[in-house]
Specification:
The protein is an alpha/beta fold. The chain is 53% helix and 11% strand. It has 10 helices and 5 strands, in the order αβαβααααβαβααβα. Helix 1 (10-17) packs parallel to helix 6 (104-121) and helix 8 (150-161) crosses helix 9 (165-187). The radius of gyration is 18 Å and the shape is globular.
C-alpha cells in the first residue's frame, strides 16, 4: 500500500488520532456471512461518486500486508499468528533459534498502530480488524455493526463459497474463532461493552438500501464536513 505516506511511532499515531484532523473513517464490524467487504466497496464507490476531492478506500486484509512488510514477515504468517488460539511449541523453539523472530506482542502492537494510522489519515472504510475499538478515540468516525440470522449467514456463505450447508456452518464457526483470537491478540482482553453508532440487520435491507442508510448516517455525523 502506498496509502501510509509517513510511518509514525505509536505515540505519534495516538496523539494525531485525538486531533480534529483525524478521519473521517467508517468502521464495519460484522458477523460472518454479512458480506461486509462487499458492502464496504459499494459504500466507497458511492462516496467517491460524490462531488468531493477525497478518495475513499476499503481496508481489511491489507493491514496484514502492511504489517508484514514492516515486520519483514509473510502476510500469511502474520495472519496465522494473530488468529491462532494457542502459542504452539514450534513457535517457542523458533523464538530461540530465529533472530528475525517477532513475538505475538510485537506483531499485535504493529498491526494496531497501522490500523490506527490508517483510520487517522482518514477517508477509509475499515472492515473488521477491531477497527471500531482501535479507532474509538477518533471523533470524526462512524462505527457500524452488521448482524443477521444464522440461516441468512449460512445461505450467504453457501452462495459466496459454493459450499453445502454443513460446510458453511463449519466455515462460520472457524472464522468466528479466528476473529475472537485476533481481537484477543490485538486488544489483550475482550471488551465486555462494545459501542457502535448504529447496527443493521443485514437481511432487512438490500445492498442499495444499506448504502443509502449508511451514507445518511455518515452525513448526520458530519463525516463529510472536512472532506
Amino acid at each position: 500500500m502506498t496509502y501510509l505516506n509517513k510511518r509514525m511511532t505509536g505515540d505519534e499515531v495516538v496523539k494525531m488520532s485525538k486531533t480534529k484532523a483525524a478521519g473521517p473513517v467508517i468502521t464495519i464490524s460484522r458477523e460472518v456471512g454479512c458480506n461486509g467487504v462487499k458492502l464496504a466497496n459499494l459504500i466507497a464507490s458511492r462516496l467517491n461518486s460524490r462531488a468531493m476531492e477525497s478518495n475513499w478506500k476499503v481496508v481489511s486484509k491489507e493491514v496484514f500486508e502492511e504489517s508484514a512488510k514492516e515486520l519483514k514477515m509473510e502476510p500469511e504468517q502474520v495472519r496465522k499468528t494473530l488468529q491462532s488460539e494457542t502459542f504452539v511449541f514450534e513457535d517457542m523453539i523458533k523464538a530461540f533459534s530465529d533472530k528475525n523472530y517477532k513475538s505475538n506482542l510485537t506483531i499485535g502492537n504493529t498491526m494496531k498502530r497501522i490500523i490506527l494510522q490508517i483510520a487517522t489519515e482518514g477517508n477509509c472504510i475499515i472492515v473488521g480488524r477491531a477497527g471500531h475499538i482501535i479507532a474509538s478515540g477518533i471523533k470524526n468516525a462512524l462505527h457500524i455493526r452488521l448482524l443477521a440470522t444464522l440461516d441468512y449467514r449460512i445461505n450467504t456463505i453457501m452462495q459466496n463459497n459454493h459450499l453445502n450447508r454443513e460446510e458453511s456452518i463449519n466455515f462460520i464457526n472457524r472464522v468466528e474463532k479466528e476473529r475472537i483470537a485476533f481481537r484477543k491478540a490485538i486488544l489483550k482482553d475482550h471488551p465486555e461493552n462494545e459501542l457502535f453508532d448504529i447496527a443493521f440487520n443485514r437481511a432487512s435491507f438490500s445492498d442499495e438500501e444499506m448504502v443509502e442508510l449508511i451514507e445518511f448516517a455518515a452525513t448526520k455525523k458530519n463525516l463529510f464536513q472536512n472532506s
